[in-house]
Amino acid sequence: MNEIIKLVKVVSRRQIADFHKVPYKIYKNDEQWIPHIKQDIEQIFDPKKNLQFSKGDAARWILTKKNEPIGRISAFVWEDRDYGGIGFFECLDNVDYAKKLLDKAENWIKDKGKTKVQGIVNFGERDKFWGLMVKGFKRPSYQENYNPPYYIPFFEKLGYKKIIEQNTSELHIENFDGDKFKKIAEKAYKIEGLEIKSFKKSALDDFVQDFHKIYNDAWKEHKHYVPLSVKRVHSLFHALKSIIREDVLLFAYVNSIPVGFYLSVIDVNQIFKKVNGNLNLLGKLKFLWHKNKIHVDRIRGIIFGVVPEYQGKGIAYALIYRQYENLKRDPHIKSTELAWVGDFNPRMLKLFQKLGVQNTKTHFTLQKQL
User: Fold this and answer.
1) CA separation (Å) from 33 to 175, 246, 304, 319?
2) d(CA 347, CA 327)
3) The pLDDT value given to residue 8
4) CB neighbours (10 Å) of residue 81?
5) What Cα–Cα distance (Å) separates residue 23 from each residue in 164, 282, 366?
């Protein structure tokens, strides 16, 4: 490889700026691409804001040619896992460049004592910046990974294999069989003490506690389950405050005990497209201006779950039907996107089949032995 190609660890402000410049080179002719908000990414690499640093570490690098950034990558490790992760990979269409980036991240992870590496992942929750896109390549949602089709051959050629397939589907409101689901939901309505509530910002702490209980009860038996603390849940809701729409964040209770949720947010990327990846003071002003001008036509379901003892009792259908009723009242919403359903969750996949959704995007989580 030519000596003008250099791999540099990101430390200085200039290097951080170059890290964020890379995608603009990769996607300069891609009309579908919407840049991630760089402040969101920087929080991930800030030990003061990302709790993952209390039990792990992260590093990142840029690849330069003639001092211009042409690629980037990050690497993560956790104390309690036998694998590390790579994320925020971007690279020009050159497998040699990709190999140089991956080798650097893999060696850093191996030096930390890990035996496997997973990618593309995030130093945080799976609902953001997770997975390599292999199908769809259009209308990326907020904090959803988007990449060129040539990335997957890079990873396969360099020894990575799929371990999780995560699917995103879309349901158009006009195609939803409301009468059918109302009848199915009636099973849940017969449960004594059932109540479905919309989120209220004024009672955020209460809903944080309820989310924490439902999430940890509903996912604890899943193979890939990672528990969430109340503190972490609170920070997640705080991060979503600018895009929270109260009526589409639904919680189910039985005799005041939280048993399920169906949480969605507006497809804020329709607004962030006008911000161009920077939520500084000017970006915030642009966001507020366009938020009042743009009629967002899609919501994005970010998480859906019911505690085990109430699964199969119609709670899920009651939540879905209530969401449908809410969306029908909004003349601008045309569809809902249902995100991040892993192939390890057949119950949810079966439910989505009943909904009649259309699969629109697929991401892979990949793994390689070191």
Assistant:
1) 28, 28, 27, 32
2) 24
3) 95
4) 15
5) 25, 21, 21
| Residues 142/300, Cβ–Cβ less than 8 Å | yes
134 token code pair = 């292999």
pLDDT tens digits, 185-204: 888 888 889 999 999 988 98
Can you name the residues that pair with 57 across neighbouring β-strands? 77
- Token look-up 């192939």 returns 343
List domains and CATH numbers for the chain: 5-159 (3.40.630.30), 170-361 (3.40.630.30)
Contact 68, 95 (CB under 8 A): no
